[in-house]
Design a protein that fits this description.
Number of helices: 6
Shape: globular
CATH topology: Rossmann fold
Radius of gyration: 16 Å
Number of strands: 13
Distance between the termini: 20 Å
Length: 204
């Protein structure tokens, strides 16, 4: 049975929950690019939007644990991929340049067609590929590929992390059930930051 968690407006966390939210807030500060001290909103230009999304993608990789069989060696690269038209226009390469996750260097690959996708650990599916979404998700089913998208209802359609807008700011939703079926372990700190989480069983 699917479950839906959402933070309730006006609720006041106490004790351990408050401490967890404090930690989550510090992570969120690292996630969101700032413009004059203000979170960049949907009113920003497209380039700014995808700079923020690129930063989110980097941090998603930090708070997700892949199964051992998903990566060949302990120091093999972590590959971020896009499919179809690349909406980042170089922003993803810039965001990942010189960065590592653990001992892994990061690289970017772009694919035009679903059947070309291979060797990805993180796959971003832009809104322009909405009609191909079922074929794309079917193509990586059974592989430990973290699917991230921006089309409406992305997580409800089987994607793992979907960008959305909340109060005119870029947020994200998580389909925990889809992630767990692919043998991912998602940090509770990342789950705490999500606008909503559907399905799956939360860890401690």
């Amino acid at each position: 049975m699917r479950k839906l968690w959402k933070r309730r407006a006006g609720s006041r966390p106490t004790g351990l929950r408050r401490r967890c939210l404090q930690i989550a807030a510090s992570i969120l500060g690292a996630f969101v690019a700032l413009d004059g001290g203000r979170p960049v909103s949907a009113q920003s230009n497209a380039l700014g939007e995808y700079q923020i999304k690129a930063a989110f993608l980097f941090h998603f990789g930090q708070f997700v644990e892949w199964p051992r069989e998903a990566l060949k060696d302990a120091d093999s690269p972590l590959t971020y991929c896009t499919i179809g038209e690349d909406p980042f226009h170089g922003s993803l390469e810039v965001a990942l340049s010189g960065k590592t996750i653990g001992a892994r260097v990061l690289r970017v690959q772009h694919f035009r067609k679903p059947q070309e996708i291979q060797g990805c650990q993180v796959l971003f599916i832009g809104a322009g590929e909405r009609k191909l979404l079922p074929a794309i998700l079917a193509g990586v089913k059974g592989d430990s590929v973290l699917t991230v998208g921006e089309s409406e209802h992305f997580v409800q359609d089987g994607g793992m992390i979907g960008f959305c807008l909340e109060e005119n700011k870029i947020r994200f939703e998580i389909n925990l059930e889809a992630a767990q079926k692919a043998k991912f372990r998602i940090s509770s700190r990342l789950l705490a930051l999500a606008q909503s989480v559907i399905g799956g069983q939360r860890g401690t």
